[in-house]
């Protein structure tokens, strides 16, 4: 079943809205974080949110004045950006898994330290 242009646009708009909401969520979490160890991560999340907003803004600006070669170029650019976003998300998931494991190790070490008689 082939989606119509309107259906694809609605889906893209919904994904963009979700992406912007997630970026805002990440920024709010970054702003609320207090830990020195998370400063670099929080800065990266804030920069990513800005990057996403900038890419979406530029895409919106360019949609109005496109010819056939530009449409093809835009499609290739969008596909490349999508792959980059997937790769970035995959790396973020790997980092999150590592952070969870590091937190678990730290918790076990702290619990063992507290439980060990002095």
Explain this structure:
- The chain has 118 residues and is mainly α.
- The protein has 2 domains: 1-65; 71-118.
- 86% of the residues lie in helices and 0% in strands.
- It is built from 3 helices and no strands.
- It has helices at residues 5-32, 39-63, 68-115.
- α1 runs antiparallel to α2 (39-63).
- It is elongated and about 75 Å long.
- The termini are far apart.
| Number of distinct helices | 3
Measured distance between first and last alpha carbons: 69 Å
Shape: elongated
> What summary fits the major beta sheet?
none
Give the topology string: H per helix, E per strand: HHH
Share of helix, binned: over 70%
Strand content: under 5%
Structural class category: mainly alpha
Low-confidence stretches: none
Number of domains: 2
List how many beta strands DSSP finds: 0
Q: Specify the oligomeric state.
A: single chain
Query: Which radius of gyration do the C-alpha atoms yield?
Result: 20 Å
Mean pLDDT across every amino acid position: 81
Summarize, please.
This protein is mainly alpha-helical and 118 residues long. It has three helices and no strands.
Provide tags for this entry:
mainly alpha, single chain, 2 domains, 118 residues, elongated
Record the SSE blueprint.
Blueprint: H1 5-32, H2 39-63, H3 68-115
Helix pairs in contact: 1-2
């Amino acid at each position: 079943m082939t989606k119509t242009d309107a259906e694809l646009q609605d889906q893209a708009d919904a994904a963009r809205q979700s992406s912007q909401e997630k970026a805002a969520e990440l920024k709010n979490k970054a702003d609320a974080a207090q830990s020195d160890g998370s400063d670099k991560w929080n800065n990266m999340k804030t920069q990513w949110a800005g990057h996403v907003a900038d890419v979406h803004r530029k895409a919106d600006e360019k949609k109005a004045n496109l010819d056939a070669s530009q449409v093809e170029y835009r499609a290739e650019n969008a596909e490349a950006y999508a792959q980059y976003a997937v790769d970035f998300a995959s790396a973020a998931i790997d980092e999150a898994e590592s952070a969870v494991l590091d937190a678990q190790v730290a918790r076990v070490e702290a619990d063992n330290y507290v439980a060990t008689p002095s």
